[in-house]
Amino acid sequence: MNLMEGALSDALSRWGFRLLPGSLREIPGRGWVFAARGPREKAVGWVGEPDFLPLTSPLLPEPIRAGNYPANLYPWTWGNYLALRSVLSLAPQRCDRPASFGTGDRLGWVSRAQIEALRLYPVFPILAQQSPRELERTKRDFRDVLLQAAWGVLASGYAGAFGADADHIKTAEQLREAVEAGYTMFTLDLSEHLRQPVPREPSPLARAIVEAHAGHRLSVADGQGYILEEGRLWKAAQRYEPALEAAIALVGQLRAWRREFDLEISVDEAEEETTPEDHVFVVEYLRRRGVDLWSLAPRFPGRFEKGVDYIGEVEAFARALRLHVAISRALDGYRISLHSGSDKFRIYRVFAEITGGRFHIKTSGTSWLQTLRVIARVDPGLLAELYRTSLDHLEESRKAYPISLRREDLPLELPSNPEQLLEHPAARQLLHISYGVLLDAYREALQGALEAHWEELETAVREHIRRHLDALFVREVR
Ligand SMILES: [Zn+2]
Q1: Which one of 85, 117, 143 terminates a domain?
Q2: Angle, helix 230-257 to helix 172-181, in steps of 10 degrees
Q3: Based on the domain organization, do 179 and 311 belong to the same domain?
Q4: 476 belongs to a structural domain
């Protein structure tokens, strides 16, 4: 800590705020910006001439002194964030690296820890990954999600680029909100259309794609190759064309609002595994309609349940992945994306290898589970209540999340060491999907319990994200 940092830290602590070490950034010749945390709020601070930055609503009645300079604190509001965006790289950007890693921060508490982990690895960080489903359950909006993630970036001192993912978008309205907030990555989800297919005759375009690819041989890295079957291509055409038309309409909207973005198409929540024929049809259809993908999230064999490891044969996953990668290389080179990607330690290594390090991974709820792990340590009574509430609302929570959890697999009582609940696969899944009902009933209590334990929470999240990246980048885990 340098001299000014020391003086600033002392002055702030008298007002009950803590300077986040490492967050101080110089704006040459003008002053310094920093992040601080108060008892109940996030703040941004400015050391320098008060009118250089248009920050509003100072939190301290009088400027404090940091060495020779005046300083004040401001609430972390959208307006103050925009003021900083003009001088610091705090706006999300398009991805510019082969590997990318996405994290969600459902409560807006752990983005700093996430970026601190991600910056240590050769991945492009995509923060603020949130779906409308999560927004609804957490009673937040895209703007707030990005705002809290940007504070995490500021607070971590990370000055590199990052993206923001509006995940599982289904409507133009959702898209517009995300565009207005400044999101750079948009994930359009076709799963719902696939669940309720509207049968129709394939169009001339669909016919042309089937005819062009039927019998075509793909060369696959395992040397075996794969011949695209005509019957399956027709099936893909029938299932996917209406869904793709809906997605193309959304892309048209998106283009009217924004010139450049990273576009992902996801079918990971479809009921059926994505066949090579499905994949070829989807990408070719989009390509011929002028839509280029940044990434595609297929539905892989096996089960990708929330917060637990991959369920299935790793070899079957690897075989399917090799085919998807072969297709993406043959067609355009967009990346393959893995959803529900947290805690899938059995497959990270093959995923990184087979994709040749060109991939995207999404994780979200696992950071929420780390939050509960800290609650288990610091307030076991609260965890017991959270768990009981989750049990009571199981049916409600599972409506939004396709998981195979059975009630009889769930322990009825907390184990003697409450943290062990977070090791129990069924209980983990239950807690993973229950965040909506838990936040409705316990937001204040959770926040209160964590306030005194921020460092523990950040350490838990940071270490857990690092375990994922260590596994991807081939370091022994644990
Ligand atoms: Zn998904």
Answers
A1: 85
A2: 50
A3: yes
A4: no
Kindly state whether residue 94 falls inside one of the protein's structural domains: no
How far away, in angstroms, is 268 Cα from ligand 1 center? Answer: 5
Determine the distance separating the centroid of ligand 1 and the alpha carbon of 57, expressed in angstroms. 39
Of the listed 167, 189, 262, 269, which one is catalytic?
167
The model's pTM is 0.94
Same domain, 201 and 301: yes
What tens digit of pLDDT does each residue of 49-95 get? 888 899 999 999 999 998 888 999 999 999 999 999 989 989 999 99
Q: Say whether 144 is catalytic.
A: no
* 167 is a catalytic site residue: yes
Task: Give the pLDDT confidence of 279-293 residue by residue, as tens digits.
Answer: 999 999 999 999 999
307 CA → ligand 1 middle, Å: 13
Instruction: Output the CA–CA distances (angstroms, integers) from residue 110 to 3, 105, 144, 145, 380, in the order listed.
Output: 29, 6, 14, 11, 21
By CB atoms closer than 10 A (0-12, 13-18, 19+), residue 176 is middle
CA 404 from chain centre, in angstroms, equals 23
* Owning domain of residue 51: 3-85
C-alpha 330 – ligand 1 centre gap (Å): 24
User: Which of 116, 165, 241, 264 does the annotation list as catalytic?
Assistant: 264
